[in-house]
Amino acid sequence: MKYTREVKTGILAIIAIAILIFGYSFLKGKNLLDSSRNFHAIYADVEGLSPSSAVTINGLKVGQITSIDFLDKTGLLLVTFTVDSDFQFSKNSLAQIYGGGLIGGKSLAIVPDYENKLMAKSGDTLPSDIEEGIMELVNERLTPLQVKVERVIVSADSLLTSFNQVLNPETRNNLQSTFNDLAETVRSFKGTANSLNNIVEGNSAKLDRTFTNLDEMSGNFNKFSDTLAQVDLSGMSRDLEKIIADFEQVSNNLSSGKGTAGKLLTDDKVYDNLDRATKQMEQLLQDIKLNPKRYVHFSVFGKSPGSYQPPKDSLK
Question: Which residues contact 256 (CB under 8 A, 6 or more apart)?
Answer without folding.
Answer: 262, 266
